[in-house]
Amino acid sequence: PAPPPSHGARAAEWPADAASVDDFPEVAVFEQRLDTVLASGAAFPYFRVHEGTVRDTTVIGDRSYLSFGSYNYLGISGHPAVNEAVHRAVERYGTSVSASRVLSGERELTVRLERALADFLGLDDCLTLVSGHATNVTAIGHLVGAGDLVLHDALAHDSILQGCALSGAARRPFAHNDADALEHLLRLNRSRFRRVLIVVEGAYSMDGDLADLPAVIELKKRYGALLMVDEAHSIGTVGEHGRGVGEFFGVDRSDVDLWMGTLSKSFASCGGYLGGSARTVRWLRHTLPGFVYSVGLTPANAAAALAATELIAAEPHRVRALRRNAALFLRLAAAAGLATGSSRDTPIVPVVLGDSARTLHVADRLFARGVIADPIFHPAVEEGLSRLRFFLTCEHREDDIRRAVAAVAEEVAASAG
Ligand code: PMP
Fold it and tell me: Are residues 193 and 278 in the same domain?
């Protein structure tokens, strides 16, 4: 394909492939990838239609499957108390807040949710936005800009990378969970940039391991950097009461400048949050573009997240059961010789197979046996590190976990060679 035009190029000089999206070379590349999946003979693994709430099991067509493919970690999506709270919220407030909260005004529900989240997180205050992905994009885009630097873990989620791109700041990844590599970058770069923002995730969704938060906090303090922690997968799942990596490591909450998380996983809703000091959150509330210029959470989403926050605190057995199930799955998988990598202390267990065709084949075999595990390929993970990914929930039953691991071990062995 022709090189992209420079910013100054006139429309007439643009290559023909830029005139229609249909003709973009990247569309053709995508179609080739899709054809490979379709030609593999495997059942199409994407956009499957589920008939009800996805919990430890799910129904597709007329068959029930054992599911390891949803973020319903605490089994709260579909909980009667949450559904009831949503019904009441919709009756009272309708289905939309119909504008940015700055101008359309507040609903008591959203104010209560942000207070409850801040209390749950042990923070002064908290702000909610309509999407977890957009929360990272707008927050990073707002905190740093030209002349600044973002240092992020090499496994950072797409939303973190998009935020970096939007910000115009320089960006350098450091080797996954490698505090020495982070320190090296800080030593080389700290004095060359105005602000340095370190971004890590509480729990990494592809590898199922935790950030080394105490080490990162020590470096942040030593080098005078800012720190943002994305708790998409660690909030509700990690720590004695599910209060995330801060609780797990017993860190002082104020050592992290911005705690970010999503409402779409443990909180059984949709949206993102940013938590921190009262002063920081007030500034964001009045200036953050993705908040100020975007609609507030729907009443239904706010009600679901509020009811979920209350349930997590009131029913600590959910977090305990989740931890027990994840530990059992990991122990059985490791004992069966499956390559679970660095997974530990999270409800995410990968089984790394390397080759994408093999990964797709094993996922398909498992699906035929009634077990759902997501096949993950490049670009979501590095080339050659394709894997099946298992999300545990607190609702999985011990015999189902044993049955699933045995099936995975059999299919992985059968696919070898
Ligand atoms: N951050 C991380 C680490 C994530 O894994 C995800 C989504 N899985 C997001 C942000 C975006 O969250 P959401 O899906 O709620 O928009």
Answer: yes
Q: Whole domain around residue 367: which residue ranges?
A: 47-73+317-414
Contacts of 104 (CB under 8 A, 6+ apart): 97, 98, 296
Structure tokens at 187: 């030593």
Do 358 and 294 belong to one domain? no
Same domain, 233 and 292: yes
- Quote the pLDDT of residue 5: 45
What is the tens place of the pLDDT at every residue in 119-164?
999 999 999 999 999 999 999 999 999 999 999 999 999 999 999 9
- 246 CA → ligand 1 middle, Å: 18
Say yes or no: 273 and 377 in one domain.
no
| CA neighbor of 144 nearest in space, from 120, 117, 113, 166 | 166
CATH number at residue 275: 3.40.640.10
Q: Are residues 252 and 128 in the same domain?
A: yes
Ligand 1 center from residue 233 Cα (angstroms):
8
pTM of the model: 0.95
3-state DSSP assignment of residue 60: strand
Task: Take atom 4 of ligand 1 and give the residue whose Cα is closest.
Answer: 232
| pLDDT tens digits, 278-323 | 999 999 999 999 999 999 999 999 999 999 999 999 999 999 999 9
User: Residue 45 to residues 339, 359, 389: CA-CA distances in angstroms?
Assistant: 22, 11, 13
- End residue of a domain, out of 266, 286, 314: 314
